[in-house]
């Protein structure tokens, strides 16, 4: 056996590895990076957090000359932790990239998710795991915990995986959610994004000589456990901007007006990193930052915002989304940057997803005009490189009432909340630049087009409801959930716990988001979770 050089991370330059580094740092272990094929021989333990598509990942490993050293590392018996694609590449191949060979350590292939229509793909969020073998790592992590998943391809239980399956999980069908045999441990879920349970799992991997050590006599493995359930996510959203004194603050608008009614000062509800850390501790399943004035400035020059992300990712171990200014930009000195470059900088700084607002509207307009997928839009490029799950579309719509669907070319709904002149129908007009500019396009068409172009999730705000505490616009949310097969995040208007349960019950979004009530400490996150749990919804327990 070689080694003696500590724990190494295999990073081939895609996605957010910062979170894995931060999770390892929490365990008090310092990390080295594989920089060349020779480095594999130096590693005692190896962590491989693969991201992107199966084919792109294998292709990159091949280009770097890493495939044989990686196979040799695994065969050497030194401990290996694969995360997400770091698990899938252990297989012989994947339906995602036909004809491309995987490492072939596990004698089975990765399949496409095929689930009933009402289930969104990617499988995104917090789900449980059923142990299939006794395991100390899993026992220490907490086998009854929920872990964060985000994937569109999966390992089915087959003869080839039988000796490997550490856990299975259910989402429409049962799949293998982690594997463990000998020196190899690999998870489909992201331990680095799975809160305290994930941190414990990583710590155990780092502490133990062998990841396949059996659990204690207390750890019971049942042959036919009840199916696990995906929990609807509860997201805390922080609108961030510079106030009139030049400080970066969390603010919150009423129908997008973030200035105090009397003084017209920008409302200051706290410091971004501290608030995000508080929401993580309180049990938020995800945290979203929206850089709400970035349409004016170049986000790459916005070093304080990037620093907010870096600092947050050291303290917050759930998924982080950042929105604002994801588009092609030109610095004041004339230097151009593509949206992909802007997004890449955000990912390097600790973001797991980027959210695209104004640019998504302009891209949709162009696509509807030309019918041509150029492959060059921010949505297509970021989705291609980082995967659809990393691309969220933030929609800022407002209601436009009409007496009859014939009065507009847009997609209308019959509303229970008639307009000022008794109009029984409305459509939802998209806006850009933080709601300042209405466009001739509706939210339904926008959501469908963005999904077609490669978006993985919709963050659905509502300008009429934002900051009103009057409850979500259930009609809007139900309509968009129906329009797309990707997850929809319901946003704007939450004022009390019952608003969350009503939204999940009637409109069935994948996630519910709120801002103002959390910032003003009117309703704590724990209280929302407790209420949802009492109403029979699956929730991720707060630790
Ligand atoms: O257009 O790609 O640069 O992105 C700008 C982003 O900033 C968009 O996602 C847009 O929604 C957001 N934004 C811009 N201006 C404002 C504003 O408020 N003046 N905030 C703004 C949007 C809505 C949500 C809010 C929910 C929940 N705010 O962020 O968190 O409505 O609020 P509530 O629970 O208090 O009701 P681009």
TrEMBL record:
Pathway assignment reads: Amino-acid biosynthesis; L-histidine biosynthesis; L-histidine from 5-phospho-alpha-D-ribose 1-diphosphate: step 5/9
| Region annotation PRFAR binding: where it falls in the sequence | 357-358, 394-396, 466-467, 492-493, 515-516
| Record GO biological process | L-histidine biosynthetic process
Q: Ranges for the Glutamine amidotransferase domain? A: 9-207
Job description of the protein? IGPS catalyzes the conversion of PRFAR and glutamine to IGP, AICAR and glutamate. The glutaminase domain produces the ammonia necessary for the cyclase domain to produce IGP and AICAR from PRFAR. The ammonia is channeled to the active site of the cyclase domain.
What the entry lists under PANTHER family is as follows: IMIDAZOLE GLYCEROL PHOSPHATE SYNTHASE HISHF (PTHR21235:SF2), IMIDAZOLE GLYCEROL PHOSPHATE SYNTHASE SUBUNIT HISF/H IGP SYNTHASE SUBUNIT HISF/H (PTHR21235)
Per the UniProt record, the source organism is: Salpingoeca rosetta (strain ATCC 50818 / BSB-021)
Q: Which family does it belong to?
A: In the C-terminal section; belongs to the HisA/HisF family.
- Keyword annotations for this protein? Amino-acid biosynthesis, Glutamine amidotransferase, Histidine biosynthesis, Hydrolase, Lyase, Multifunctional enzyme
Q: What's the EC number here?
A: 3.5.1.2
Q: Which residues form a coiled coil?
A: none
Q: Name one Pfam family in it.
A: His_biosynth
The entry marks the following residues as binding L-glutamine, namely: 84
Give, as one word, the top-level EC class: hydrolase
Q: What is this protein called?
A: Imidazole glycerol phosphate synthase hisHF
């Amino acid at each position: 056996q070689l080694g003696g050089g500590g724990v190494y991370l295999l990073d081939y330059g895609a996605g957010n590895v910062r979170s894995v580094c931060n999770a390892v740092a929490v365990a008090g272990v310092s990390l080295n990076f594989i920089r060349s094929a020779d480095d594999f021989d130096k590693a005692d333990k190896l962590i491989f957090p693969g991201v992107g598509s199966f084919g792109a990942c294998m292709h990159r490993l091949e280009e770097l000359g890493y495939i044989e050293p990686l196979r040799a590392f695994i065969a050497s018996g030194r401990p290996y932790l694969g995360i997400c694609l770091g698990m899938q590449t252990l297989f012989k191949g994947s339906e995602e990239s036909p004809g491309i060979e995987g490492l072939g350590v596990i004698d089975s292939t990765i399949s496409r998710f095929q689930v009933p229509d009402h289930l969104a793909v990617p499988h995104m969020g917090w789900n449980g795991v059923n142990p299939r073998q006794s395991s100390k790592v899993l026992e220490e992590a907490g086998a009854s915990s929920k872990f964060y998943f985000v994937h569109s391809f999966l390992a089915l239980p087959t003869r080839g995986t039988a000796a490997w399956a550490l856990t299975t999980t259910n989402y429409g069908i049962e799949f293998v959610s982690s594997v463990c045999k000998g020196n190899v441990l690999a998870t489909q879920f992201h331990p680095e994004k799975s809160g305290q349970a994930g941190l414990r799992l990583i710590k155990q991997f780092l502490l133990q000589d062998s990841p396949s050590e059996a659990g204690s006599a207390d750890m019971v493995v049942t042959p036919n456990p009840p199916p696990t359930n995906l929990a609807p996510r509860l997201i805390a959203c922080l609108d961030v901007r510079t106030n009139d004194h030049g400080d970066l603050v969390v603010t919150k608008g009423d129908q997008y007006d973030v200035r105090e009614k009397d003084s017209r000062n920008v409302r200051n509800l706290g410091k971004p990193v501290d608030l995000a850390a508080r929401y993580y501790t309180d049990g938020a399943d995800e945290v979203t930052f929206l850089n709400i004035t970035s349409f004016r400035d170049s986000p790459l020059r916005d070093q304080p915002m990037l620093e907010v992300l870096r600092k947050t990712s050291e303290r917050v171990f759930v998924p982080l989304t950042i929105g604002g200014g994801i588009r092609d930009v030109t610095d004041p000195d004339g230097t151009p940057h593509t949206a992909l470059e802007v997004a890449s900088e955000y990912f390097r700084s600790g973001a797991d997803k980027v959210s695209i607002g104004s640019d998504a509207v302009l891209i949709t307009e162009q696509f509807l005009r030309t019918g041509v997928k150029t492959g060059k839009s921010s949505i297509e490029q970021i989705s291609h490189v980082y995967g659809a799950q990393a691309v969220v579309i933030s929609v800022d719509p407002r209601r436009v009432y009409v007496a009859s669907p014939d009065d507009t070319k847009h997609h209308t709904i019959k509303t229970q909340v008639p307009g000022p002149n008794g109009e029984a129908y409305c459509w939802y007009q998209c806006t850009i630049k933080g709601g300042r500019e209405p466009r001739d396009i509706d939210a339904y068409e926008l959501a469908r087009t963005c999904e077609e172009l490669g978006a993985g999730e919709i963050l659905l705000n509502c300008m009429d409801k934002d900051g009103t505490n009057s409850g979500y616009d259930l009609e809007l949310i139900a309509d968009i959930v129906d329009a797309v097969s990707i997850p929809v995040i319901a946003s704007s208007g939450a004022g009390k716990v019952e608003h969350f349960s009503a939204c999940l019950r009637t409109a069935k979004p994948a996630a519910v988001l709120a801002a103002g009530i959390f910032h003003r400490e009117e309703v704590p996150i724990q209280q929302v979770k407790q209420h949802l749990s009492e109403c029979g919804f699956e929730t991720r327990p707060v630790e």
